[in-house]
Amino acid sequence: MSNEDLADFAVKHALKLGATYAEARHERSSSNDLSLKNGVPQLAGFEDVEGLGVRIIYHGAMEQLSTDWMDKPHVQKLIEDGVRAANANSRLMEKQSLLSGERKEKAKYVVKEKKKIANVGIDDKFELIFGVEKALAKAQVPTRFFSLGDDVTAKYYVNSEGASIRSVIPRVGFAYVITVKHNERTRQRHFQWDQVGGYERFDAWKVEESIAAEANALLKMLKEGVEAPKEPLDVVCGPEVVGIACHESVGHPYEADRILGREGAQAGESFLTEKDIGKRIGSDAANVVDDPTLEGSAGYFLFDDEGVKARRKALMTNGVVTEFLHNRETGYALGTSSNGSARAMDFECEPIVRMSNTFLLPGEMKEEELIEGVKKGVYIKSFTEWNIDDKRLNQKYVSSEAYLIENGRLTKPVRKAVLETTTMDFWSSLDAAATNVQYFAGSCGKGEPMQGVPVWMGGPSARLRGMRLGI
Amino acid sequence: MTKLAFEEATDYILKACEKRFSDVVVHASRSQAKQIKFVNSEISAGRIWMDQSVSVFVAKGKRVATTSILDLERKTVDGTIAKLEKFIAKSEPNAEYGGIAEGHFAYKEVQNAFDPRIPKLTGDELAGFVEEGIGAALAHGAKRASGSLEITHSREMMKTSGGAHGTQKGTSAIFSIRAFAEKDASGHKLSCVRSMQHFRPGETGQKAGEFAKESLNPVPGEAGKFDILFDPMAIACLLQHVGDSASIFSVEAGFSFLENRLNKRVASDIVTIFDEGTLAGGMGSTKFDAEGVRAQKTTLIRFGILRNYLHNTSTAKRYKVNTTGNAGIIAPHPWNIVLDNGNYDSQEMIQQTKHGLYVTNLWYTRFQNYKTGEFSTIPRDAIFRVENGRVVGAVKGIRISEKMSHLLMGIEAISQRREQILGWEVETPVKCGHVLARHVNVTKSTEKAGA
Lengths: 471, 451
Hints:
The structure holds 2 protein chains of 2 kinds. By secondary structure, chain A is of the alpha+beta class.
């Protein structure tokens, strides 16, 4: 029996034991990682991982099962243990676990690599990472940490309703933390790239140019930065800041499992309730979507981890809540259907409601025009420290790179601009979005155990009127 | 097709690797776990998982590499070792690498690290614990409760080319419950144990329920400087960063506010913090580290003075000190961060607070600069306003924006009673009591112009 056949066997065996629903995900992934600390190679490594995740519903109770012992007796025992556990849990359940009805999709897709990961050796990767090190040779960056990684994951999904999806997704990522120093004062920048595809992605990022520019900008902020104004002003957020705001204060509170309380003790709940479709929380210029089908993106998939076809979701349209993110469980609970937002970090994890690529849609003005329309303000190009409360109402973004805007022009660098505001104030103050859409990679955490999944967040620059900066 | 038995895998892989590499560490682990997740006072899902893997570290001179082997089919194992040999040949040397520990180590059993009752717990018994915790929360003021119960048992075998070899088994149970009296009135508590004799889901649920009830009708908090009494769950979120920052790897990589602070004051003189590798019942306790050195108790901060960084054999050689038994072969890491207890009880600490807050949990701690220790974090769940030694109400909507050094220097009282914390926001186990810190900076969302 091949290991993919074990997935089919698991579904059949669960049904035989009385499960009313079963699905299985067989995953095989190969990954490589290496890192450089202050120019010194650290630990390089590779890993080939294979495992099976199975989810069953028995007596109305849902049970997620997983193993990397890929043989029939272990899989059989796992299913039998799962049925017993579900039976015990069902007595503490008034409501049965039920899933929304969905199309029985059958599909296969493979993300293409122009420069195949398999053909890039560890020696080539060291050359890439040392190239980045060299780019900082002339900058005053005493502390540097870089990591380069890739993986290829082949997945086979099957469920008892007849869906069957095969996919192969290669991925490349690079992350850095740099510290610049001037007169005993320091400043740090964390950044990462992550895209599906092959090593052509790394080439396109132009890491060497980008990191050198970032180091110079950090030094400029440190050497020349002035205090941020305390009086009321307008704030122009660059695409990186807009992206994190889309992710934290639109994407997360729109996750239907949070709205229903399913993340209550972990990632938290939401300021939104199930009745809030149609509620206005932003201005007419606030149009935010989540779209896993964005080619080459970090959050790319065409079918989710419940076998549902992925699509773009319009979360906020002209400032109004238009759609939540759903998996099949929340789709059923709220009387609608899944919109293909179920993701599991790997075969060990249950598929829960997740974002993919969340971004503000562009407006019609150029970024320069946004800035020209500001008499007194601050342009926050990028951020460092950030957080938001677990209902997603109060958020804080501290600038990494920021400039004063005086009479429509960028002037002096600002040492530290703190945007500490509420979700309603942020989105209702947005009066215009520009056309310069950019995306930024991140790892989004949720669930118990913690599931980190790759996402993009972004959009164009956006202007917020009448704000006050924090301290 | 021949599959290696788990018990013979370490020997087989070590022998095969010793022929090809100068240093080898083989670490095999097998674990099984069960979890119940509950939402709004009902079980929402269960989870069972079974894992096994063998992690392999090898060095050839200064070249170092690692991999994991999950499939113990002999052909797969041989193929992975051959791939490792090719991989390391094309890798660049790590000039800082100074080898692994040499010699045989005698390990002491960690007390209360394994309880044979845990692997035998039935689904009905687990559901019973969940029922007990939820019931207690509801009986003490909560309207609903969400959380999880997770039990694990594991077995590990370790062998190195330096001559170290050891085995250990462990168990754990973590019950996490967040009780809600209203949407913005909640309490969150944990029970983290290695053996069932200390497992208290009912007490944990009760305390979460009480916090929820007592924090009803919170009013918007104010920005400013406050004396803050931190519940163990809250201060653990911050103390874990002391442990992480004490790793010499963090210091070198720019991830530590403790750089250049050895033998200097980093906290008030009542603060003593250890890393205890063999803490009885410690969630992170272990007999040995990743290179087979016996885990130990290391003083990080004594009476406010930073005394040690955490080292492995290789980093210790570079700094001309002894290893502290904290390998990670490349990056040393803490096992259990332990804050020495003080003399107070938490009620006395409230009575000592003239104008302050009692914060019971923290959420989403993020650093602006690891080197300077500037961060912010969000008080979550019950936050109480304390005036003239009495709790006078609940608040919401605030943020702590501080520097680690200022916070640690402001610690004025520590409770005698301590709790062990490991959970969503605390990834390094911490054992600590209540902590009272003076003049902590609190911020909140600014009001829009004209508001």
